[in-house]
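Slides due. Your pick:
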Amino acid sequence: MKKILFFIILFIPITVFGISKDQVEFFRCVDGDTARFIRDKKEIKVRFLGIDSPEIEKPNQAAEPYGDAAKNYTCNRLRRANKIYLEYDNSSDKVDKYDRVLAYVFVDDKLLEEGILKNGYANVKYINKNYKYYDVLVNAEESAKINKKGIYSDETEEISEEKFMSFIKKYCKKLLSNILREIFK
């Protein structure tokens, strides 16, 4: 009887672990709170559950302060990872309106979102107290605020002259294109 009970106790954590987490391979970074992974030989786009990082530079849109820093932090952590797991929350949808998988990301058994928040590269968003890691994420964000890290620092991220000129060129091209389109209608 003891042997049967031992085997049941031994296999319960494995079964639960298998249901709630998926091991994935890193494929490509998108920004500070989104990345692409390979799961079951298919590429998936994952939006990290519970956080929102500043936006990176997009066509006709300048990067928000710390957007590039958030992306760099996330990409470095994912590239160096030995193992990556996605964990889903019963309080959340599995997929968002943009068809991105919504999941917590664990890098070498550490919650990636927590590190992003502690460094001030995101804020807690789109979750409430019913979510599994709500308290962990709120505490990490509070730590960044107290320590004035990243988006909570007193300093603004310096924008290089190169980035600024790149944005101006793109903006001017778009503006000129719109003016010419209106003239030659």
In short: The mean pLDDT is 85. Residues 2-154 form a domain with the OB fold (Dihydrolipoamide Acetyltransferase, E2P) fold (CATH 2.40.50.90). The chain is about 40% helix and 20% strand. The chain has two domains: 2-154, 159-185.
